[in-house]
Amino acid sequence: MNVTTPIEQRDFKIVGKSVRRDDVLEKVTGEAEYTGDVKLPGMLHGKIKRAAIAHARIKSIDVSKALAYPGVKAVLTHENVPRVLHYGSPHPRSASCTKDQYILDDRVRFWGEGVAAVAAISEEIADEALDLIEVEYEPLPAVFEPEDAAQPGAPLIHEVGPGGNLVLDPVRVNRGDVDAAFAQADFVLEGTFSGGRPHPAYMEPNVCIADWDGSNKLTFWTSTQTSFMVRGILAEVLGLPLTKVRVLVDHMGGGFGAKQDLFQHEFLCALLAKETRRPVKMEFTRHETFVAGRSRHPCKIWLKQGFKNDGTLVARDMKLVYDSGAYGSHGPGVTIVGTTAATSLYRCENVRLEGRCVYTNTPINGAFRGYGVVQSYYALDIQMDEAAERIGMDPAELKLKNVVRAGDIAPSGHPILGHGLEICLQHGMDVLDWKSLRNRDRTPDPKRPHIRTGWGIGCEMHGSSAYPGIKEQGNATVKVNEDGTVTLLTGAAGLGTGAHTALAQIVAEELGVRFEDVGTIHGDTDVVPWDIGAFASHTTYLVGTAAKMAATKVRASVLERAAMKLQVKPGEIDLSEGNIFVKAEPGRFMTVAEAMGPSRGIPAANIVANGTYEPTKSYSFAAHFAEVHVDTETGIVEVKRVIPVHDVGRVIHPIAAQGQIEGGIQQGIGHTLTEDYIIDKKTGRSLNAGLVDYKMPLSMDMPDIETIILEAAPDPGGPWGAKGVGEDPIIAIGPAIANAIHDAIGVRFHHYPITPEDILKALREKGA
Amino acid sequence: MKRIVELTINGEPRDMTVDSCRSLLDALRDDVGLTGTKKGCDVGDCGACTVIVDGEPVNACLMLAVEAEGRTVETIEGLQPGVDTLHPLQDAFMRHGASQCGFCTPGILMMAKKLLDDNPRPSDEDIRFGLSGNICRCTGYTKIFDAIKAAAIEMEAARS
Ligand code: FES
Ligand code: FES
Q1: For residue A501, which of A483, A428, A750, A492 has the smallest C-alpha distance?
Q2: What terms describe the molecular function in GO for this protein (chain A) (predicted)?
Q3: Per the domain annotation, does B83 fall within a domain?
């Protein structure tokens, strides 16, 4: 919706094909270098001493024994690190962050927070030295639930911010006349909803390496989605010019949003390296990825909606409270995005929303795929099913009646383009023959009478950028080399989504060369153009457009050069699949290599161009159809089959797009049924910070997924209409499962995860 | 206490000098320099460190390096039959999009190799069960299952 020009149609040669991903070749051979694989001469190992108390003031900290321990090279505490108040999520082009943290403070705000750091010649020695650090705490009263933290007189976790343990002032949206609309509604539904604390559990634990050179320049390897943010905030807090910080990241073992904070261990690693004048590596244990990583914000929601008897939605009133944990991190962004998202999905002219984000003495919650919207759309979508049930209507029909359509105002304030959601929903209903599924014989299989089956639908929409919260900027540099090959320089991170391949496809397509001739350089802030980071499902949309712009420019220059060599006007020639030919005489042509290389009197050349793009927003849509089997004896819910129908605009790499959807469904099944990072409500201690106790869906648990991608509503803001896909799947699957469980056993759940205990308890109550 | 361990890694006789409490995983990654095998948890929960020892899949983080004395260890670096050729599983993983971030991939490939070596015609259930100790958080496994099935068919065809 950025530009009004129609989307260019063409006979695609490379876009839309699942070309070979170069990064995957390195991955299947074991050659791909991840941060943890980097080893520098003389490298030390850093470890962090973590507090075993949820809220306290540090009375004293004695490191003398640790310092004297053989092999220990440095110990840092709040007494000897710079004291600079800084952001946890430093999106440089947004105003929505809270400066609320120090590298080390004389205060502990959650169980597991770092209070000191050690560098030693081995990990084992560093670990042993941690036990020699003696910390004396003065305990402070702690609060673990937003309800308690928001009470007047509750212990204050921060001095900064609006007060009352709020991370930011409440986010409010008012549209239309909500009270009048409720007065005219035929019926009103009201309910409370809640979501747990799912953890991203990327397979590569956080890891970084710091190395200073003689000119006081810091080279910093780290597994991050946002290397330029890491550069910016490290420089700011350490008091260095940007040119004195170089951030490197090649392959990453996943992030899912959560690797876009600047973490405490990253500062400490840099400072330990500075202190010791040796490279230092810091690698999280799996336990630390939970305690010191980032999880999804637990959320409590109150939702009231008014409907007409024909199923038309007329009013919505909603209050959301997000639990930020001990620091702000992405709390402001999540609250704004999650709250304003509820203006939409199902069209409603009269909307009143209020979102709050509250500090508690629990581990930090941050960005995670679905960013606040997982929570709000779970509530919206389940209540739509309840409305259908109330009037005896098919929930699919009721949703179809109310879904957003072209011209409706999106959460960003823009009119929505196209009928993406309606088309996805209708398509899924047709493919599944939804009517007969609804009317199927529901008698349980006599061989397994305790198994009940159910089908449910979940809908979602998600922006392919963070606008208007963040003004994004996408950059790309494209070079055509003297042998006709092409180099794309991008700052976009390689989380594993295939983003670099998609960008190279876009360049090859636009320029008119073979995909194999485009190489990609990424992951070095000293070399590649500035990038805001890989988040908000925006890389293909944002950086893809910038890459296409740069490719358009170099294409024109290549044609100019070839025209000179062929002694024709640039307009008389064209470029396709690496060949430049005279349009009127296709037999007369030269290759791009010949155009760029030397010929008599003309030296070889390099052609370079940049593309910079500042988009507004587009939305992608999805409707998920899920089948569950509920075992009424054990309470176990099995997701058997999922048909996700997505509109992502133009598809650049079909297999990569499908992979995003299937992986999102896996994580969404997890948070809906089994995943919850549990914090003890008495002590603030983590109870399941490990991969066995934190239960994720694995190979035995995955349903059959039949992914359908429709190019239903391409957006001119993205390359040939491409939109984002990363976050969408995790949002739609949750309510689809909850609604399917209701279809199976007639019980409504308003929370996640829905555990076997919850199912059995509800069945008992229903029976009674 | 340091010990010298003699073993065969990917067909080559090697020795490594390790602390007696060092895991095979750390020894492979840090001492031998074979970093293709990944550490996702270090406590036996994720399968990222799966290697094959004397023909059996092992979580290298749970095995002591000294226990590998005299044994044969296969890692991801040894899966390629030749410099320019890929194992059918590697090729299938690429074609089917079975690797996203790739952090689980070396472990899953080694586990899948063992699976197909033992059971050249695995059912869907066999594949799911075979991978039950390997966490992949990116792919939803769908494309991994597809790739293993495709590789099985290809390997079968190559044999006949
Ligand atoms: S690293 Fe060995 S099982 Fe996870
Ligand atoms: S591809 Fe990322 S964990 Fe499997």
Answers
A1: A492
A2: iron ion binding; oxidoreductase activity
A3: no
